[in-house]
């Protein structure tokens, strides 16, 4: 495409698209990669932190070396572009408290100066990013800040442009006769901008846009639209759809829309109407989103990082089409290994999208979309490009979302696809919070981090940290950060399972009936407050009763009260069975049933039902419920607090023997119905495989079903049992919305050791189940998990990793023979006799 003859024959213009530099002048070689690669300014002695390399890091914004190599490469590749578009975001992603207006303006000045230094003769067309504002994201019409920015960019802009920029951060320029650029300020419409919420037309931009497009139409000009935040999920719904509607009717004028912001490589098509058959109808326009120079990623979201990117476009001015682009990338992983930054071609758009010399038009990019929808290998490649070749965990559902996002550009269509389409149902599993209202910063770590009897905190810093301690239950700060993280990650899950253990592990004398009920009330309402639109399915834990672990069949005072607390969450029918035995069953949606069991009856520390055969008639009710689910062809999720089998964490059985084996036998005929069991209680991360019979030939028999044990939020370690502590955990599951197969889960953790040092609570992804268990696009069913079990038998490294995750990445030694036996036998030896035979 950049063939010299061709360029002359076709009147080809070339231009660089520079976006999201996010140059961080405080990036320091040897800085802390968990703190934006900065050297700690407070000079607090943080030991053992991972040091930032010279070439950049995926946790951090661009060091100068990366910026410099980017521009060196651009100048070497094409020193004389016809123009440059620069779509914003100069400020680094540092804490907002570290920024002020001057720092933000300085950042914009710096990146503008670098571009000018390297391309002194080029015309430059900038747009305003959501980070090019102070306070960050907050930009509004007529504000002084816009005038300040217009000063920085004044040599690129005409008088008229300067005026519109001061008014609303937008402008238009004639690149050359017949070719116009419109720089849109979508930072006004950005979802996190709270300054312009109630304005119909912030800065009169819509009105202006319509006028400019009409002029372009009359004059028969071709138009490039540029901006920072692209249309789609990043803009407020009403503004987003209105912006797209503004372009309808100008398909002849608009060549393409070019954006940044997402730090992702993707494109969108928009249609005349939100409700369209995306396959058979022609789109009105095409939007290209270029990835960033910065490799920084938001580790609070599930998004993977990206490698640094540069993009050069070519356009045929006479034909009024984008001809092509070259996508360049720098392999940061390799740069870190080699200690220097190199750039190379990632792909050529006309080849990858098979557009040939027809150009990158709405029509050719629609053809590419149809191909992506029909060819899964092709879609895989597209998804790899999204993160600029950074390895992603994108499973089939994720790929389907990426495909949908190409066409679901209107808010209306996004909702249709992402919320009601055939995508995954997601649910949080919240368990073992054990919130301790008496936890105090400075409290005694040998006494649950409570204040001493005299009410004093420990002097000299030997007391508990404000963020938690491995010897204590959850302080309020931990509970609050966990919910904040969940809401940020997915505020609208399809439902939530909540498997109990709210009160702290304090002596019986420090609790009573009222305190236990109050604790359940508080935690329940905290969940419903954070997830006001989400259905919650609770289960009773052994700590949700008083005295601890002692629960007798109902009706009784305690079950009546718990039923009262949960009466808003459940149906009247559920409340009836809850009163009798603490169990219930509901349809999550037609075809998917949840059964919440009360396994506290069977727990080895509950001595209220030892002599009964079926306390609360739960097992006979369970049989009937499963039988009717089978005849109605429903899929079933089993939830409960204490799991059956052996507790590998504490090295003790969980249920009395007679209950354990009877309980397991109930499930034997329903392997087709039950997608999985979900438990808590052990405060560890594990899974279980169960068999119809008490078989012991595990080497060749595929199990009937699988149970997942989710670790606790509390890091508390039982000093009386041979366990390791665990880090705080959160987990979100995904099930297929049609087959209800369990697809995946994401396991999040918070590194309490680090939190205590930094004084703040950080959450991060620990692992993705489909990847760790190597499900290869199969569901997380008995078969997949059985293969993971077999891998552990033969592969010590894999077993060690399982053992590490078992304590939520609390550091452990390699899993020796004793550890291996207990871990593996507790996975397959659920029946009591099975377990003891497995040990020998
Ligand atoms: Zn941005
Ligand atoms: Zn617990
Ligand atoms: Zn428990």
TrEMBL record:
The record's section on Gene3D superfamilies has: 3.60.21.10
Domain of life assignment: Eukaryota
GO MF annotation: an example: metal ion binding
GO CC annotation: what is one? Answer: extracellular space
Indicate where this protein is primarily found.
Answer: secreted
Q: Which UniProt keywords apply?
A: Glycoprotein, Hydrolase, Metal-binding, Secreted, Signal, Zinc
Q: Which Pfam families match?
A: ASMase_C, Metallophos
Compartment(s): Secreted
Q: May I ask which residue range the UniProt record assigns to the signal sequence?
A: none
Its cofactor is: Zn(2+)
| Listed InterPro entries | ASM_C, ASMase/PPN1_MPP, Calcineurin-like_PHP, Metallo-depent_PP-like
Domain Calcineurin-like phosphoesterase, first and last residues per copy = 14-264, 426-684
Family (UniProt): Belongs to the acid sphingomyelinase family.
Protein name, per record: Metallophosphoesterase domain-containing protein
Q: What is the lineage of its organism?
A: Eukaryota, Amoebozoa, Evosea, Eumycetozoa, Dictyostelia
């Amino acid at each position: 495409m950049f063939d010299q003859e061709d360029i002359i024959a076709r009147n080809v213009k070339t231009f660089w698209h520079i976006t999201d530099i996010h140059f961080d002048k405080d990036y320091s070689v040897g800085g802390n990669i968990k703190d934006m690669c900065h050297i700690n300014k407070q000079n607090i002695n943080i030991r053992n932190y991972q040091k930032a390399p010279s070439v950049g890091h995926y946790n951090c914004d661009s060091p100068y070396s990366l910026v410099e190599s980017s521009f060196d490469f651009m100048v070497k590749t094409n020193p004389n572009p016809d123009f440059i578009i620069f779509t914003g975001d100069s400020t680094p992603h540092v804490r907002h408290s570290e920024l002020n207006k001057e720092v933000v303006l300085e950042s914009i000045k710096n990146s503008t100066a670098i571009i000018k230094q390297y391309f002194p003769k080029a015309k430059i067309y900038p747009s305003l990013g959501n980070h090019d504002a102070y306070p960050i994201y907050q930009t509004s019409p007529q504000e002084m800040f816009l005038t300040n920015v217009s000063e920085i960019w004044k040599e690129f802009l005409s008088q008229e442009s300067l005026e519109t920029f001061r008014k609303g951060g937008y402008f238009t320029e004639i690149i050359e006769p017949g070719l116009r650029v419109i720089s849109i300020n979508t930072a006004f419409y950005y979802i996190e901008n709270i300054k312009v919420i109630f304005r119909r037309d912030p800065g009169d931009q819509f009105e202006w846009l319509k006028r400019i497009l009409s002029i372009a139409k009359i004059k028969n000009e071709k138009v490039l639209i540029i901006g920072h935040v692209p249309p789609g999920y990043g803009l407020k719904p009403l503004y987003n759809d209105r912006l797209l509607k503004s372009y309808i009717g100008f398909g002849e004028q608009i060549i393409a829309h070019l954006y940044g912001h997402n730090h992702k490589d993707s494109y969108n098509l928009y249609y005349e109407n939100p409700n369209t058959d995306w396959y058979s109808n022609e789109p009105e326009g095409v939007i290209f989103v270029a990835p960033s120079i910065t490799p920084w990623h938001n580790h609070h979201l599930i998004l993977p990082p990206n490698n640094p990117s540069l993009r050069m476009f070519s356009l045929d001015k006479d034909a009024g089409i984008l001809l092509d682009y070259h996508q360049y990338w720098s392999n940061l992983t390799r740069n870190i290994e080699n200690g220097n930054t190199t750039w190379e071609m990632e792909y050529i758009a006309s080849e990858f999208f098979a557009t040939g010399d027809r150009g990158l038009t709405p029509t050719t990019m629609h053809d590419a979309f149809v191909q992506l929808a029909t060819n899964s290998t092709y879609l895989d490649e597209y998804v790899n490009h999204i993160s600029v070749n950074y390895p992603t965990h994108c499973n089939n559902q994720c790929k389907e979302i990426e495909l949908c996002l190409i066409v679901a550009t209107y808010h209306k269509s996004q909702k249709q696809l992402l919320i009601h389409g055939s995508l995954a149902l997601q649910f949080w599993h919240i368990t073992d919070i054990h919130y301790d209202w008496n936890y105090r910063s400075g409290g005694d770590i040998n006494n649950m981090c409570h204040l001493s009897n005299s009410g004093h905190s420990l002097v000299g810093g030997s007391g508990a940290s404000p963020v938690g301690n491995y010897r204590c239950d959850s302080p309020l700060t931990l509970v609050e950060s966990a919910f904040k993280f969940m809401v940020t990650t997915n505020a609208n899950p399809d439902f939530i399972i909540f498997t109990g253990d709210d009160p702290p592990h304090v002596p019986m004398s420090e609790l009573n009936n009222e305190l236990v009920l109050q604790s359940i009330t508080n935690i329940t309402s905290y969940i419903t407050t954070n997830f006001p639109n989400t259905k919650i399915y609770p289960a009773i834990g052994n700590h949700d009763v008083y005295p601890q672990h002692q629960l007798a069949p109902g009706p009784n005072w305690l079950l009546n009260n718990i039923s009262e607390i949960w009466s808003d969450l459940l149906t009247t029918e559920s409340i009836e069975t809850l009163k009798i035995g603490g169990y219930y069953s509901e349809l999550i949606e037609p075809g998917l049933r949840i059964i919440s069991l009360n396994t506290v009856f069977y727990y080895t520390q509950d001595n209220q039902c030892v002599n009964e055969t079926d306390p609360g008639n739960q097992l006979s009710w369970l049989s009937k419920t499963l039988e009717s689910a089978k005849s109605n062809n429903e899929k079933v999720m089993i939830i409960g607090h204490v799991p059956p089998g052996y507790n590998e964490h504490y090295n003790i059985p969980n249920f009395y023997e007679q209950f354990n084996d009877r309980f397991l036998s109930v499930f034997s005929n329903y392997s087709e119905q039950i997608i999985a069991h979900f438990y808590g209680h052990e405060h560890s991360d594990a899974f279980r495989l169960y068999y119809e019979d008490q078989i012991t030939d595990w080497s060749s028999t595929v199990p009937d079903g699988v149970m997942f044990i989710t670790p606790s939020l509390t890091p508390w370690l039982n000093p009386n049992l041979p366990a390791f502590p665990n880090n705080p955990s959160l987990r979100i599951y995904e099930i297929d919305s049609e087959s209800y197969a369990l697809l995946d889960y994401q396991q999040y953790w918070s590194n309490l050791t680090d939190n205590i040092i930094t004084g703040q609570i950080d959450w991060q992804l620990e692992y993705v189940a489909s990847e760790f268990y190597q499900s290869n696009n199969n569901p997380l069913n008995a078969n997949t998990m059985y293969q993971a079990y077999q891998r552990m038998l033969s592969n010590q490294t894999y077993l060690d990793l399982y053992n590490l995750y078992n304590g939520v990445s609390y550091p452990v030694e390699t899993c020796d023979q004793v550890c291996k036996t207990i871990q593996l036998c507790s996975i397959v030896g659920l029946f009591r006799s099975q377990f003891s035979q497995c040990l020998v």
